[in-house]
Amino acid sequence: MYNILIIEDDLTIAKTLCSHLQKWDYQAVYLTDFKNIVEQFLELDPQLLLLDISLPFYNGYHWCNEIRKVSKVPIIFISSASENMNIVMAMNLGADDFIAKPFDLNVLTAKVQAILRRSYAFAGQVNVMEHKQTFLNISDNTFMYLEQKIELTKNEFKILQILFENIGKTVSRDAIMTRLWENDSYIDDNTLTVNITRLRKKLAGLGLEEFILTRKGIGYIIE
């Protein structure tokens, strides 16, 4: 579970972000003391920082600069000050991304997921994921069962990868669509249904008719 620290002085926004990220199984906390941010940052040791520009005492640029002296943690600026100069300044100070207010929570989630994956998930990543004599090859987007191999489209592979990452857990349709959208694939509810149907047909051809199960009204699971 990744720890995300929210530094936002609008408590309504901070609480909304915190609650939303916790629904995605992140451990999210927000600060209410804006005087000693670096000390709190070091104590909490987050894996990602959501940082507003306009803060009491010192602005977000100051704290980004101070945090960069002690950590390479990914930083996403969230701010209504979205002029190009503010974005350039944020990036020059070491920010990894910039999200303008007001923002869509799904867009923010996708950006958080992408940065966390780039920063942490690929460290020591294996090339093959295995489950009950099935093998998902990350290197060439193929799936194998009992020495039978099938090729997958980009979306089919990503769906299986998401489910393999959550073996035994139900993954919601919204979560799958967000991950696919993050990878520049246009996905809506109907498109996801078509991809799941095609993927199941390919798996059935290998004798895996019930490999992906539906949890009605919730999502999908590989048990």
UniProtKB/TrEMBL annotation:
Pfam families according to UniProt: Response_reg, Trans_reg_C
Keywords from the UniProt entry: DNA-binding, Phosphoprotein, Transcription, Transcription regulation
Any one biological process term the GO annotation gives: regulation of DNA-templated transcription
Modified residues (4-aspartylphosphate): D52
InterPro entries, per database record: CheY-like_superfamily, OmpR/PhoB-type_DNA-bd, Sig_transdc_resp-reg_C-effctor, Sig_transdc_resp-reg_receiver, WalR-like, WH-like_DNA-bd_sf
Top-rank taxon, per record: Bacteria
Xref: CDD domains: trans_reg_C
PANTHER family named in the record: REGULATOR OF RPOS, STAGE 0 SPORULATION PROTEIN A HOMOLOG
GO molecular function: phosphorelay response regulator activity; transcription cis-regulatory region binding
Lineage of the species this protein comes from: Bacteria, Bacillati, Bacillota, Clostridia, Lachnospirales
Organism annotation: Anaerosacchariphilus polymeriproducens
Positions of the OmpR/PhoB-type domain: 126-223
Transmembrane segments: none
PROSITE patterns documented for this protein: OMPR_PHOB, RESPONSE_REGULATORY
DNA-binding region, residue range(s): 126-223
Protein name, per record: Stage 0 sporulation protein A homolog
GO cellular component terms attached to this protein's record: cytosol; protein-DNA complex
Domain Response regulatory: 3-116
Purpose: May play the central regulatory role in sporulation. It may be an element of the effector pathway responsible for the activation of sporulation genes in response to nutritional stress. Spo0A may act in concert with spo0H (a sigma factor) to control the expression of some genes that are critical to the sporulation process.
